[in-house]
Predict the structure.
Amino acid sequence: MLRCQRSIYSVFLLFTLTNAFDITSLEPIADKNIQTGNRMLYEREINTNISQAVAAKEDAADGVIDVNEIPVRYDDAQLWRIYNISEHMQNNMPLAETLENQFGGVIWKENSKFLDISINKDNLKAARSYLAEHNIDKEVVHTNIQELIDAVELEGIKATQSEAGSRTKKQARSGINWKDYHDLETIYDFMREIRSKFPKICRLYSIGKTAEGRDLKVLRISENPREYKKIWIDGGIHAREWISPATVTFIVYQILSKWESQPAYIKQRTWYFMPVVNPDGYVYSRNVNRLWRKNRSPSSSSSCYGVDLNRNFNINWNGRGSSTNPCSDTYRGTTPASELETKAVENFLSRRKHNLSAYLTYHSYGQYIVYPWAYKAVKVKDSAALQRVGKTAAERILSKTGTVYRSDVTHALLGIAGGGSDDWARAACGAKYVYTVELRDKGEYGFQLPPSQIRGTAEEGMIVAETVAQAIAL
């Protein structure tokens, strides 16, 4: 992909990010006898005596990608949307699985209404013949996926080059903004800056390591972590869903940029943020394969890499909606929580499930706000409350940005799938307000959402977080 080409990437590094997060513009939080809790309880806090430069250097050294790996390109690959899939056919010959296994298809989105799947140019003729044989119609959404990928890259460069050379010492070292998609190091630098700017209310944890040695980082924001209700927010479980980490970092910024004037339902909460649950996959998607979904753990039984982390949680792990094939994008792994990332999140939250009131996980795409269950065709007992809050969030989004979101139980909109983090958080941790938020869009761009839509999408994610926080009793 374009980002991986040295010439373009070198040019990209020359451009300064406009509207970069200015850490010095935020007023420090005064010491108001804020209760910071037991630092040593089940967690290893990042050593604040280690400089940001040293920490960044350590991250850069971890999990270096093989420079000889050739980036995957999708020239003339097509994106198809298929609607008329009969239940009989799905039960006897799952179409997505067939197109994936026999024709090298990459599944973008599969739900109860349609299937979005990309087919590379070498398999187009055979895949078309297969659909014709079974009287299945398709809509060609895009005829060249690489053009989509390149367009996103170019737009991001153009959006951030206008103030090249104007960066000052007052601006954030991370250079984060919401005009383009950022690499892992920038996201982690942003989290370190937040921690150093608000030491009285923020903690930065490393809750584990990935298969390639990268840190799994979580940021906590709270004035009283022992007493306040807890809200967990994560993103980046699926590597290719770049809008997800962008949205989570935006929520962090929105909450802290006006912390002193925030309403009680924001300030009197303990917030946990994990912008990138899948760092290895995220880096791989930026450097090698833009459509990579899984993590990067090696398989003992196959040459294929990676496990779908959102099929690996310990909740009906071996049920419907996942694969036993290590080469599949929905491979569930060898055992529940077999993956370091899954295990780290499960351990971290299991120790903090007291007062855990909400679990929000951001994905793309589809514009849905869904709640448990996903692993079975049943609603949770308090689904009426979850539907009310989800619908309220959708209405507020429509009023502010004009974007239509739909709220419903997960299995009804996305189909049945076991091993999901949302179902696990509800069942194992007792969190009431559990939502998977499928951000923009509805499929026109899919994972290649233009950078011009990042901020608007992130604002929609913030509205969901605010609505949920408001629903939780003080």
Notes: The longest strand covers residues 356-364. The radius of gyration is 22 Å. Residues 76 and 144 are 4 Å apart (CA to CA). The chain is about 35% helix and 15% strand.
